[in-house]
Amino acid sequence: MKNTIITLLLVVISSLSFGQLTKEYTKITYLIPKDIVEKEYTISVKNIVSTKEYCKLAVTVTNKTDAILLFVPQEGSFNFEFGSRKSDTKDFYIMPHDSKTKTLTVNGGNEFLQEKFSAKLGLLIKIPTDKEVIETPNFILPATKNSFSTGDFNVVLKKYNASTKEAKAIFECTYTGNDIAVVNPSHLSVSAVRKGTDETVIYANDNKRSKPTPLKNGQKVKITAIFHIQGRIVDMQFATMEIIWNNTFIVTQPSPYLLPVINFELDKSLSN
Fold first, then answer.
1. Among candidate residues 28, 20, 19, the one with its CA nearest the CA of residue 53
2. Helix boundaries (H) for 36-149
3. Residues facing 36 on adjacent strands
4. What is the C-alpha to C-alpha distance for residues 128 and 264, in angstroms, rounded to an integer?
5. Best CA proximity match to 105, nearest among 60, 53, 31, 30
6. Cα first-last separation, the chain
7. What residues contact residue 163 under an 8 Å CB cut-off, 6+ apart?
8. pLDDT band for position 1 (50/70/90)?
9. Mean pLDDT of the chain
10. H or E element, residue 189
11. How far apart are CA 106 and CA 53, in angstroms?
12. Does domain 24-128+255-271 match CATH 2.60.40?
């Protein structure tokens, strides 16, 4: 009987100290969990803190693939004793062989000073960039028409300038499909006829800032094509040229990764 009473007292004291611990702090820092390391990606979490009004953490996603990764924080949740909360951080893309860090924050209420909580950070989606290529007719410059459609893409020529040293065309592309598209201007090229011959020469897009851009339904992207051809080969100011789109326009089927739930525990030394 005596041992039973002592055990009950210890349980009560433990419960009281748990409550006091969370109320003592105005800010709690949590232990950094192990990275989620997979063949195609790594996810690391740090700077995990909470106050009475909010809880937040920094998540870094490293893309180890040739595909684009899409991270969707709204598909995750922070789970506490009092209930769950979702982050309002927007979706973000991680380009091939690159990393990106975002802060995920949840709020609403005044109970976030908890010793422990768990979280599913979100949904990670792989977007391959080598799937269905939309075959697109060449576009003539100077333009005989300013817009065209190819598959579920609507493309409008917004500006074109050409001189002997440089030709530059700027397009606006809108995706109207229901899958995910990838537009990659670095894949396009231009063809022209060499001066004084019937030989066709082809030059790649010389825009160093070109990169693949994923698009959902209704989203737009600017396509900038820049060409430098020596005047002795083609005088771009007067020549008729054709943009060859190659695999600039791609429609792809995304595939999700299953992410584990991560548990977070109070870091007493840092919180103190």
1. 28
2. none
3. 43
4. 33
5. 53
6. 38
7. 236, 237
8. very low
9. 90
10. strand 189-193
11. 9
12. yes
Quick one: tokens of 127? Answer: 């977007």
Alpha-carbon separation of residue 140 from 57, 93, 148, 190, 192 (angstroms)? 51, 33, 11, 9, 10
Quote the DSSP letter at residue 67.
S
Determine the Cα–Cα distance for residues 56 and 264; give it in Å rounded to an integer. 12
The span from the CA of 124 to the CA of 180, in Å, is: 14
Cβ neighbours of residue 21 closer than 8 Å, sequence gap 6 or more: 115, 266
**What pairs with residue 115 in β-bridges?**
none
The tens digit of pLDDT for each residue in 126-173 reads: 999 888 999 999 999 999 899 999 999 999 999 999 999 999 999 999
Record the pTM: 0.79
Task: Please check whether residue 142 is in contact with residue 156, taking contact to mean a CB–CB distance below 8 angstroms.
Answer: no
**Where in the chain is CATH 2.60.40?**
24-128+255-271, 132-252
pLDDT tens for residues 90-138? 999 999 999 999 999 999 888 899 999 999 999 999 999 888 999 999 9
How far is Cα 88 from Cα 102, in angstroms, rounded to an integer? 12
Residue for token pair 């959902």: 216
- Region 132-252: CATH code: 2.60.40
